[in-house]
Amino acid sequence: MASFHHTLMKCHLALQREVMAGAKKLGLTSGQPKILEYLTAHDGAEQKCIATHCEIESATVGNILSRMESMHLIERRRRDGNRRSIYIYLTDDGKRAAATMEQVFAAAEDRALCGLTADERAKICSCLNKIYANIAGTEV
C-alpha cells in the first residue's frame, strides 16, 4: 500500500497536469489559473493578498502578474488616493479566461471525484482542509 504522502502527491500531480493542459490552451502558465480564480472572487485585490491566498511568494506573484498584464488579463490600479498600494483587477479578457478556467477546474474535479457521493466529496474536502491546517499550523 502506498504511503499517504505519495498518494497525495500523485493525486496533486495528476490534477495539476489536467488543469494545466486546459490552461495551456489559453496560453496560461503555472500560477496564472489560480490567480485568475482568486481575482474572480476578489477583483481589486492587493498583490500581497493574492500571494498569501495562492501560496506563492510575493516576488513570484509580481512576475506572474507582469506576464498577465502583458497578456491583457489584468490591470493594476491605485484606488481611493492610496499612492502606496496597487490593486489588481481583471480585464474583460481576464474575465473570459477566468470563466474558461472555471470550466477546466470543474471538469478536472468532476473527473477526479467521479463515482463518489456528495457526502464522500464533502468528507474528502473536510479531511483535506484539516490536514492542511495541521501542516500549516492554522485552524480550519
What secondary-structure arrangement, pairings included, does this model have?
Elements lengths: L3 H22 L6 H10 L3 E2 H8 L3 H13 L3 E4 L9 E4 L1 H21 L5 H19 L4
Antiparallel strand pairs: 1-3, 2-3
Helix pairs in contact: 1-5, 2-5, 3-4
Give a structural overview:
- The longest helix has 22 residues, at 4-25.
- The chain has a single domain, classed as Winged helix-like DNA-binding domain superfamily/Winged helix DNA-binding domain (Arc Repressor Mutant, subunit A), CATH 1.10.10.10.
- It has a three-stranded antiparallel β-sheet with strand order 1-3-2.
- It is built from six helices and three strands.
- The protein is mostly helical.
- The protein is 66% helix and 7% strand.
- The mean pLDDT is 94.
Span between termini = 29 Å
Q: Quick check: average pLDDT?
A: 94
DSSP strand tally: 3
Query: CATH H level: which superfamily?
Result: Winged helix-like DNA-binding domain superfamily/Winged helix DNA-binding domain
**Based on helices, strands and strand pairing, what is the structural class?**
mainly alpha
Our estimate of the beta-strand percent is 5-15%
Largest sheet: 3 strands, antiparallel
CATH topology: Arc Repressor Mutant, subunit A
Following the backbone from N to C, one meets helices and strands in this order, namely HHEHHEEHH
The main sheet orders its strands as 1-3-2
Rg is 17 Å
CATH class equals: Mainly Alpha
In the predicted model, the low-confidence regions spanning at least 5 consecutive residues are none
| CATH architecture classification | Orthogonal Bundle
Query: Percent range for helical residues?
Result: 55-70%
What is the approximate shape? globular
Oligomer class: single chain
Question: Can you count the helices?
Answer: 6
Number of domains: 1
